[in-house]
Amino acid sequence: MHSNFYTEQCLKASVNTCGDCIKSGPGCAWCKDLNFTKTGEQEAARCDTPAVLKEKGCPPTDIINPKNDFIKISNKPLKAGENPVQIQPQEIQLDLRPGMPYTFQLHFKRAQGYPVDLYYLMDLSYSMKDDLENVKNLGNDLLKELNKITGSARIGFGSFVDKTLLPYTDTNEAKLKRPCSDKNEPCQPAFGFQHVLPLTKDGDKFKSMVAEQHISGNLDPPEGSLDAIMQAAVCVNEIGWGNSTRLLVLATDDGFHMAGDGKLAAILEPNRETCQLVDRKYSKSTLWDYPSVGQVARKLEEQNIQPIFAVTKKMETVYTELSKLIPKSAVGVLSEDSGNVVNLIVDAYNSLSSEVIMAHEALPEFISVKYTSDCKDGEKPSDRGKCDNVNIGTEVIFDVTVTVDRCINSQSFLIGPLGFNEKLKVNVRTRCDCECDDINQPHPHCKEKGKVVCGSCRCDPGFLGQHCECQVGQKDVASLKAQCQKDNGTECEGKGDCVCGRCQCHLTEGGNNFYGEFCECDDEHCEKYANKQCAGHGKCKCGRCECNEGYEGAACQCAKSDEDCKIDGIVCHERGKCVCNQCVCQGGYKGPSCKVCPTCQRPCQESGSCVECLAFGTGPFEKNCLENCKHLQHVMVEKLIKHDCRVKDKEGCWMLFTMTEQLGFDKYIVNVLKDRECPEGPNIAAIVGGSIAAVALIGLLILLIIKGVLYASDLREWKRFEKDRKHEKTSGTNPLFQNATTTVQNPTFSGDS
């Protein structure tokens, strides 16, 4: 029996008394020496770790530091006829200091001859016809085999089909009375669940009662298995469950309906988890929905019933998955006619009995329990302790660690192995008060205005201060109130009273105090998860969860792990944080591992200067390239199939390169084409030659145009001439001759000579 190691630290909140100090944390102690605090020093200085108090000069005898205490309550003597005791101790008393874990040992030893109750729950749908014939002869053989193991065994029998409503069962009146397809086959009316035989040691009675059973039928393949299991678990008196190892064998060849399937038949009322047998038949079959797997698992665990699913090969996978959700359950494969059922049950019983799962029932608020053991994989603390392959007579030891988070009234809870009725009762009280043996009278240390309690003054009404020196009303009210306002806000944050310039905090709804200089803190309003403050994995301090080791999240709801955030060992591609085993991406990256950034573009232009200096040794970063371009790694290549970027360098050449993103932000591998696309210089000869050729061509074109115009004019004149010649031939006149426009007479000329 020992207290666990914990980090010795004292996270002081609002501390005015020894009781406040003890409640602040398991690492806190109180110095009751009268002269320990200096004038003007707050009483909170008396509260610190024992080591610090010793350093400050507090005598060891004046240090109050309550420890955990363990009291083993004597086990009750075993009476004649009672089952052997398998668990030790059977009741303990723990006096625990809040926040200080305490570990004790719980011993379990499988006893020889521990009784067994086995209830055989059979599917009587028509497809189980051959199996029923074998089960009718099962009783004596099964009792014989179980008695070999335990020496005391009882068996019972119940059967089920499905709800007698559409679409599960044909509701035609004739079909309800006789749902079997073979008219010559004995057949009983459709039913949901019926309890046939309570647990008994009489194998012949089992045989005779089961012999009276006949096959029935329904429409759809899934059966009402969960309805039947629920009634078998909650009808304790009707079934006859005793103080024993309780086994429930479910024999079926099909799947099962579950919560929500009742809506198909307009059944909306949820399963109430209570016994509803009338004349041994389930009376609420057509009124209540099927139970959920969680409801069934909880009730089986509450009643310490271990289910064995005896199913056909085709259903093995379905019931194996169901078994994973129900602690202490097993799955066995039936032969075609259930001929192997006895061996199947015996093997399943041996498997279940050799597995010991130590667990607790519902814990009182603010109490947590963890288990470790010396079994395989048992060294890691968990919510349940587990040991496999535990033989009869073998003792296993579990280390049970109990922690109380805050001061509570006396509470108790039960711990025990699943599948067994024996339980350890744990009674818990908290140590939250200081025992100081003070004299109950006015003391000079308190100016006769108060009494000394654990080294500090408890002032009379109307007085306040380290030595009760402050009398209310003697100081300026406004200045006193101003000392109680944070950032000129509400006095004591509305959660306390300003007395003599100091906040006296009110009680919270939970009965604790607000605390802090301005009563701004409390330990009751932190984020919740699964309706538990800080998910039960941390402590609420001043409105924020301080998570236990191994947990994180605003409500301590997540086990610390980054496994789901890793790809090839890299967390979130180095572009985010792993919170609650999920990547919280940054910088616009998305996806479960922050791999892609839908809105990001290649930084071609931004990287141009770095590419120029890294690849070609020129550009603005020529002198300090490595310092400015650490984020890029460049590779020169002879050829690029395609390029992401085309950027001009300082010389006007085009650089072609691709950018491949690396882990983290703004990190790239750059493949740069060795040859840049640079513009060539001017060809003077070509320019001059081209200019001359152009001028000559233009001149030639002009000449050709002029020549063309003249030719056209001459052609037109020639055509007119030809026309006039033709006219001369017909008129006798020369078309080219023109008459004189002026006549000059010669005076010397005579026409008669």
Automatic annotation (TrEMBL):
Protein name: Integrin beta
Lineage top rank: taxon: Eukaryota
Family: Belongs to the integrin beta chain family.
Nucleotide-binding listed as a keyword: no
Domain Integrin beta subunit tail positions: 604-683
MF (Gene Ontology): amyloid-beta binding; integrin binding; metal ion binding; protein kinase binding
GO biological process: cell adhesion mediated by integrin; cell-matrix adhesion; integrin-mediated signaling pathway; leukocyte cell-cell adhesion; neutrophil chemotaxis
Membrane topology: Single-pass type I membrane protein
Transmembrane segments: 684-710
Any GO CC annotation of this UniProt entry: focal adhesion
Domain (Integrin beta subunit cytoplasmic) ranges: 707-752
Stretches assigned to the PSI domain: 9-59
Residue ranges with Polar residues bias: 731-753
InterPro entries documented for this protein: EGF_integrin_2 (IPR057073), Integrin_beta_N (IPR033760), Integrin_bsu (IPR015812), Integrin_bsu_cyt_dom (IPR014836), Integrin_bsu_tail (IPR012896), Integrin_bsu_tail_dom_sf (IPR036349), Integrin_bsu_VWA (IPR002369), Integrin_dom_sf (IPR032695)
Start and end residues of each stretch annotated as Disordered: 726-753
Pfam family, any one: EGF_Teneurin
Record's subcellular location: Cell membrane
SMART domains: INB, Integrin_b_cyt, Integrin_B_tail, PSI
Keyword line: Calcium, Cell adhesion, Cell membrane, Disulfide bond, EGF-like domain, Glycoprotein, Integrin, Magnesium, Membrane, Metal-binding, Repeat, Signal, Transmembrane, Transmembrane helix
Domain Integrin beta subunit VWA: 17-434
Cysteine pairs bridged by disulfides in the record: 18-28, 21-58, 31-47, 180-187, 235-275, 375-387, 407-645, 432-436, 454-492, 459-468, 470-484, 498-503, 500-534, 505-519, 521-526, 540-545, 542-572, 547-556, 578-583, 580-625, 585-594, 597-600, 604-613, 610-678, 629-653
